[in-house]
Amino acid sequence: MRVVAGNYGGRPLKSLAGQTTRPTTDKVKGAIFNMIGPYFDGGRVLDLYAGSGGLAIEAVSRGMTSALLVEKDRRAQTVIQENIRMTKEEDKFSLWKMEATRALARLDQVFDLVLLDPPYAKEQIVSDIENLAQRQLLSQEVLVVCETDKSVELPQEIAGLSIWKQKNYGISKVTVYVR
């Protein structure tokens, strides 16, 4: 795994061995950012199920100002910290070491890009988006990127957001919601 493009482009990313996380492949990561960007002019990123941190790091590499990563797995947290150090811009990243539901209750800032890639066994996307919208944590121009198993059917609309783009990549499906 590596950062695909931007300021950190080409730098290697560590990933967690085993089945606890499913790192997004470089191919899918590149495709996601080509769908939504591919580059940004500032903004805040929320990566609610950070895994290795690769998606949030890619977003900052491509121009987002800062990223908040949430991860409950201790081994994954260690990998995220190593990957953040690799950027040499640690001040752009915050890591919250807790479950997503606990983090959602504590959030108090508005996000321009939300990355939702929960473990396939625990699909939480609809409730996560509803929670973020209800608490007014989504900017007017927000992009919500959801990565799921290709068999998962998400609703056309969630909390005032509608599917803008959707595409399958192997066993994964990427769905992007906008206002």
Automatic annotation (TrEMBL):
Recite the UniProt keywords alphabetically. Methyltransferase, Transferase
Task: Cite the Pfam families for this sequence.
Answer: Cons_hypoth95
Report the protein name in the record.
Answer: 16S rRNA (Guanine(966)-N(2))-methyltransferase RsmD
Looking at the keywords, is Transmembrane present? no
The gene name on file is rsmD
InterPro entries found in the cross-reference section: DNA_methylase_N6_adenine_CS, RNA_MeTrfase_RsmD, SAM-dependent_MTases_sf
Which species is this record about?
Answer: Streptococcus oricebi
Q: Which CDD domains match?
A: AdoMet_MTases (cd02440)
